Amino acid sequence: MQQQMGAPRKVGILSIFTHGFNEGLNFGNGRRIRNTGGGQNMATADFIRQIEPYLADDARLIFYACDAGAAVHSEGGNYTNAAERQSGGEGCFSDLCRDLLNQNGARREVWGHRTTTHAFTNPSSRVFSGPPNAPGSRASDPDLFGNGDAPTSQPAKDGRDAAVAHLQSLPECSTCGTQRLRYRLRAFVGTYMPLAPPAARPFYQNGQLNPEFTRFLEQHLATWCNHY
Question: Is residue 146 part of a domain?
Fold first, then answer.
């Protein structure tokens, strides 16, 4: 029977919802996963060793957890928000997870929040992909909204406004006000973009919306409009 069924199918997307900080996850009751381990903390390397056999070589590991993708200051504290945005997230929990998961040639992605806010509507995520310590691999940041509703650059504002205009052209959203759609878009990016096909990223480029993003957005429109 086992030979007929073949090898068990491995996990393609693993999402974890919990509290976080830039060096690990916090599950409450003093129990944490932390890069350095120690005490009641499970070391990140031990955590990865336990889940890695179940993940596909191109799996996506998504941490819906505050600061799991935020850089670790060399003195052990947090960067200011502006400095952290430029850092690429070096040394954080998600960065180390990517290093450990891909050390044998796998092509896995790890997503982690780079700010502290709502667990699953936070759009400020950072993607860690490629081989361990690959130059530039830490800078794949899909954040378009900064640490709040306001985008942080003119291209980000243009992308947001283009996406809102597209939403307003759809019958399901035609009666929604601009501010409401901005909030819904922010929540959509936070919740769904880590699950989107890679072709849907970035969602705005070279002055136009990515057609794969608009297709993905419309596929999930009813679900997220009912929630937000």
Answer: no
Do residues 140 and 125 lie in contact, with contact meaning Cβ atoms separated by under 8 Å? no
Omega prior to 202 cis, within 30 of 0: yes
Q: Whole-angstrom Cα distance, residue 176 to residue 154?
A: 24
In a domain, 149, yes or no: no
Taking 50 as the threshold, does the pLDDT of residue 179 lie above it?
yes
Residues 53 and 125 in one domain: yes
Length of the chain: 228
pLDDT tens per residue across span 139-168: 445 545 544 445 567 777 888 889 889 888
Average pLDDT over residues 191-210: 85
pLDDT for 3? 47
Considering the domain architecture, whether residues 117 and 7 belong to the same structural domain is answered as yes
The pTM is what?
0.84
Domain with 101, as residue range(s), is 2-139
User: Within 10 Å of residue 63's Cβ, how many Cβ atoms?
Assistant: 26
